[in-house]
Amino acid sequence: MKSFFVILVLLFVSSVLAKETQRDLLNEADKLKTAKPEQSRSLLDKVDRKLLLADEEDKYNYLVAYNFYINGKNTAALDILESIVSKDQASLVKYQAQGTLLSIYATLKNWSKALKLASTLQINLTDKPILDAKISERIMLSLLNFYNNIGDYELAKNLAMELLNTAKSPRVRCMTSNELMKSFVETTPQKIQPNDLVKAKKECEQLNDPIIENILNAYIAEYFLVSENPKEAIELLEANITDVKSTGYQALIVGYYELMARSYLQLSNYVEAERLAKYIIDTREQHQYEQTITTAYQVLAEVAEYSESFEQAFHYYKQYSEAKQLNLDQDNAKLLAIQKAKFDAAEKNVQIALLDKENALLKTQARLDSKSAQNRLLALALLTLVLVVFILWTYKNRKTYIKMRYFAQTDELTGIANRHHFAQLALSAIELCQKTNQPVSFVIFDLDYFKKINDGYGHLVGDEALKMAVNAAKSACRKNDIIGRLGGEEFGVLLAGCGNHLAAHIADKCRKAIQQIDTSTTGHQFTLTASFGVSDSSMCGYEFTTLFAGADRALYQSKDLGRNQVFNYQTNAFAFDI
After folding, report:
1. Which one of 196, 291, 315, 416 is most buried, by most CB atoms within 10 A?
2. Does domain 419-576 correspond to CATH entry 3.20.20.220?
3. pLDDT band at 368; cut points 50, 70, 90
4. Is domain 209-331 in CATH 3.30.70.260, yes or no?
């Protein structure tokens, strides 16, 4: 009996020690997540997840997602972070996940989700007195980074100053100094003094974290470049490039190469500038950072022009122009999303104000009713009964109306807007774009040889093919794009705040998504493709019928020239080759 008791005690002690070991592994992986990402990932691989508590499981998942983010795998990190954020309980890990998620939304240009999350964090910040200090600092730091990402540098400066006055954590102070340096470099670099650089570097030196330190070095190098001191910039970048490459952080690595290419170009070292710019272009599939790709084409064009290789210079300038236009289209889409979010917030505030006034009137009425004579109570009760009956009748009628409106506006098979409702939505979006001076594009696509599918496999299979094609197109479109069924196998997409370059790019994503559909779920294996026509407001103006006609004409040119491709009405040339 005694030996049995000893065995139980030993098992209990070993279980406690095992759990402590898992906690220690998580804490060490957390400390190294930016300093040594590969080592952090190695520690996570050693964790026995079966021994983790619920909060430790969240921390483990966050560190895995953060490692994906560091290595440029934003999509892989997205689902994990959204799962953590969706939980009800407030914790430091949840706010860390929200901050990382905010950065990923900005990177992926999902401005509607980014602005919604930023608004949520801002509301949470108003409860600062009841928040843990670490959580409060994490929220402020996430918002500071987001304001810099959307170009609201003055708001970022104010928040950074406030955070530096209160934050005690060396990591938070260092990262805040980084963001403050970025704000000044982007707006008023002439106000930066040498002592400011020394103070910022001092905040980060004690962390011994190569990613955070070298992000600051990148901002300082940018400051040297805009101050026309490329020699100092290249000395700083060359001294740290080995450490940067060892982190594996793709955004930082390609950012350093971009800064070095620009520095060498200013120093007239065209060989090095060309080598670095070509590296950025050659590895674009690995990092996909569009701004650095745009800069790389500009550097290559200027190098070719200096070398009097004018044909090559023209080629690179053309690539630079197209990349720049794509950046501008995306910036316009961002601005439109921000304007819409501000408009929605203002409208919500007006509604709240109206509800407050209505509540005040109801309270006044209640006080008056309470002072009414006793002989009026019966009449009041009768009136209340009539009101309840009226409300129930109104509620029932409204439900019926909503149901009828849904059937009147929705295509029964695919679940998207029918032709009439699509036209109404498109007209409203076009009118808003015209008022805000934003571009707008129209895409029409038609499934190729669809009659053969109906004839060969039956109409039920054809219906399934239509639904799969719509779902594939929706997954390739942006959140705010409007898609509708025009009739049969023909569909339309209205892209607000989108110029012809970006519209053609999105159309080609839809084309590829449809081509990659696996039709085996229908019980038959066949290839599904579609032809696309694109028009935009720069060519057709802000008239729905003109945009429709331009896209329709481009669609028939796409079909005439072989199908399964995108044809741009504006350029009268193929936007993409397959």
Report:
1. 416
2. no
3. low
4. no
